[in-house]
Amino acid sequence: MELIRLSALDLGLAASLVLLLAILSFRLSLGVERKLLIAALRSIVQLTLLGLVLKSLFAQSHPLFIAALALFMLFMAGYEVMARQARRFSGAWGMGVGTLSMFISSFSVTILALNVIIQVEPWYSVQYLIPLLGMLLGNTMSGIAISLDNLTHNAWQQRHQIEARLMLGHDWHKAIEEIRRNALRSGLIPIINAMAAAGVVSLPGMMTGQILAGSPPFEAAKYQILILLLISAGTGFGATAAVWLGSRRLFDERQRLRLDRLKSS
Amino acid sequence: MGSLTLKAFQTPLLAAFNLELAAGECITLTGPSGCGKSLLLRAIADLDAQHQGEAFVDQIPRQSLTGSEWRRRVGLLPAESAWWAERISDHLPRQDPSLLQSLGLPPESESWSVSRLSSGEKQRFGLTRLLLNRPKVLLLDEPTANLDQTNRERVEALIESWRKTQNSAVIWVTHDPAQQQRVAHRHLQIVQGNLQETTWN
């Protein structure tokens, strides 16, 4: 079965739907038309570029180029996490907390999957590594962004309660325990919902893609299961790391609450 | 026991000063609102990063203790107490009906929900919560501001007896000149960013 190739006209038709939505947003004064169009444009440009980059990477697949692309994806994800925070950490921590957590979770899960589970030879071959890493980064990014936003938002809202506990000699773990738990929970809910709905309500993106490309549905389902499981593990470990790092940063060595380390965007 | 020593202590609103409070001694602190009284108490309890100087309880330097160990010894009662759980009892380390009673609170009040408390009740429960921690030094930020006369007298009597039996030093922020005279012999006043001491009899 050969993949039916899409023409510029086909994509143009799909784009006109988004244009229509932008007009609707304008008429209803939702105020998101600018954001919507910029985001749509970004996805068109970024995915076209990725397609071109991958095409040339497939041709020569030098490990250094692959590593550079992977790191670029990581830093973009780190930037996105930071941009979604209403109250972010100031200085290098603003991007550092999210980026480091995603590095720990997404990279290690991807490497584990490539070496131990799928056993690709060599493990860094572009065809497997970049799509896998992309899916892991994209999903852990959302989870970490939600968790961190929840953490800093609630720490700010409940600063009097946190300090009341510090005044009574509770240590910082105890003072932020409940907020930390909620932050982590909120970051995990989307992936839990996605797993629960997979195959019943939604046909996940990867499986759709493989079926469209002509893979046997059962093989596509197995890959999708693998991806969902990896994503949930990656999101969980990544959000845990981010919440731990973030909550640690909210206190100093004297266990004082340091909301001055946050700045509102 | 609980004496408090501050050396070259300095906050963003207050020039450097030294202060020596013997165990069992009470001193009041006054000054116009916004002059940095609460900030000073927070600094002594080591809740704000922006201050300098050394602090000791019973000659033990603050640096030798962790933040939470220090704050268990130096108990701060803020002007407004915050509550993080549903019931009063969730905030108390243990039960002490006689302590509640001395503040005019019935023994079953422990199971009350925080949301139904008046500001005066909050203030008295806040003091209960703090004293159950057995702090060696008390920093009180207007502890009777929301109380009627009966309860104000109860709080004054309780702190007086606590100070004498536990021998703990007390810094008491108040705006009431009559209360100043009643509870202490030494008085601190913040005047244009400086701490000045007066002694009356």
UniProtKB/TrEMBL annotation, chain A:
Residue spans crossing the bilayer: 6-24, 36-58, 64-81, 93-118, 130-151, 188-213, 225-246
Signal peptide: none
Compartment(s) where it occurs, according to its Swiss-Prot or TrEMBL record: Membrane
InterPro entries: UPF0014_fam
Major localisation: membrane
Claim: Glycosyltransferase is one of the keywords in the record: no
Pfam families referenced in this protein's UniProt entry, alphabetically: UPF0014
Membrane protein topology class: Multi-pass membrane protein
Highest taxon listed in the record's lineage: Bacteria
An annotated GO cellular component: plasma membrane
Keyword line: Membrane, Transmembrane, Transmembrane helix
Sequence similarity: Belongs to the UPF0014 family.
Protein name: Iron export ABC transporter permease subunit FetB
Species lineage: Bacteria, Pseudomonadati, Pseudomonadota, Gammaproteobacteria, sulfur-oxidizing symbionts
TrEMBL record, chain B:
Single GO MF annotation: ATP binding
Pfam families xrefs: ABC_tran (PF00005)
Record-linked SMART domains: AAA
Entry keywords, A to Z: ATP-binding, Nucleotide-binding
Keyword presence, ATP-binding: yes
Residues in ABC transporter domain copies: 1-201
tRNA-binding listed as a keyword: no
PANTHER family: ABC TRANSPORT PROTEIN ATP-BINDING COMPONENT-RELATED, ABC TRANSPORTER DOMAIN-CONTAINING PROTEIN
Protein name: ATP-binding protein
Organism: endosymbiont of Escarpia spicata
